[in-house]
Specification:
Blueprint (H helix, E strand, L loop, with lengths): L1 H39 L6 H16 L5 H22 L3 H5 L1 H36 L3 H7 L12 H4 L8
Helix pairs in contact: 1-2, 1-5, 2-3
Length: 168
């Protein structure tokens, strides 16, 4: 009974952790239209960058929350596009001085940190659950009650690459 309840609790914790990731992804998606409009209002930015951010935002919203890997892959692509947008904005001091832009950037940064923390919590919970499913005696209970391992959220290869720094 104790083993079963422990497995149930871990599975629920994993689901709750994923829910927190999903909430933060939605929060980020809600902030992006305001950021795009603020940036658009400041002149001749690369239309392609804004279109890419908008398109990827819609892609993240359209992926089912039940497909964790696909949802995170789309979210990681959006993060890359947002980084491009931030880089473009660096070339415009007036934009960086804009209060609305600064507020949105701070909120997005906080949201990105929450997404990162929630991913860590999710993977930690998955690790504990998967270890219990494979360890005696809870593996017997897990098999009887059809507990299956949960998938870790993978870090995309683009994030693993070391940044290239040049001091030319």
């Amino acid at each position: 009974m104790v083993a079963y309840n422990g497995l149930v609790r871990l599975r629920m914790n994993g689901q709750e952790s994923w829910s927190q990731i999903d909430v933060q992804l939605q929060r980020r998606n809600d902030l992006i239209p305001n950021l795009v409009e603020t940036v658009k209002g400041y002149g001749k930015y690369e239309a392609g960058t804004l279109e890419k951010v908008t398109s990827l935002r819609q892609q993240v919203a359209s992926v089912s929350s039940d497909d964790h890997q696909a949802k995170m892959a789309a979210a990681d692509q959006l993060s890359g596009a947002l980084n491009s947008l931030y880089a473009v904005a660096e070339n415009y001091p007036d934009l960086k001085a804009n209060e609305e832009y600064s507020r949105l950037m701070e909120e997005l940064s906080n949201t990105e940190n929450k997404i990162s923390y929630s991913r860590q919590l999710y993977n930690s919970t998955v690790s504990t659950l998967n270890a219990r499913i494979q360890s005696f005696p809870s593996n017997i209970v897990a098999k009887i009650h059809h507990f299956t391992p949960m998938e870790f959220l993978q870090v995309p290869e683009s994030v693993k690459e070391a940044p290239k720094v040049s001091f030319d």
